[in-house]
Amino acid sequence: VVYPWPSFIAYPQFTRLVGGAESTVPLRRQAFDAEAVVATISALFAGAAVDRWGAPSTLILSLALFGLGAALCATAPSMNLLSFGRAVQGAGGGALTVGAMPRWRRR
């Protein structure tokens, strides 16, 4: 099984916390999938947010949401809270990508 690069940085500490590599493999996958699925869904809604409130407001909200998710991940005492933090990061990251596109086109 191949994991993305974050698994080599943050997940070993949680492996020791939860109690072994074999018990955390589904939880590792859950943490990665939570971010990917929520990022995809938030990207769909971010387009409407840019149309309604404008790109700058959407970018600020997206950055705040991503930062909140990063703080949750950094302080997560369990894999379930890490998965939730990754989902919040995904919501911010997906919206951030879509919110930045109008800025790129203007230059």
> Over the alpha carbons, how many angstroms does the gyration radius reach?
16 Å
Approximately how much helix is present in the residues?
over 70%
Number of strands: 0
* Helix-strand category: mainly alpha
What does the overall shape look like?
elongated
For the biggest sheet, the summary is: none
Average pLDDT confidence is 78
User: How many helical stretches?
Assistant: 5
Order of helices and strands: HHHHH
Strand content: under 5%
Uncertain residue segments: none
Structure description:
This protein is mainly alpha-helical and 107 residues long. The protein contains 5 helices and no strands. Helix 2 crosses helix 3 (21-53). It is elongated.
Ordered list of secondary-structure elements with their pairings:
Elements: H1 6-9, H2 11-18, H3 21-53, H4 55-74, H5 79-106
Helix pairs in contact: 2-3, 3-4, 3-5, 4-5
Short description:
The protein has 107 residues and is mostly helical.
Give a quick set of tags describing it.
mainly alpha; 107 residues
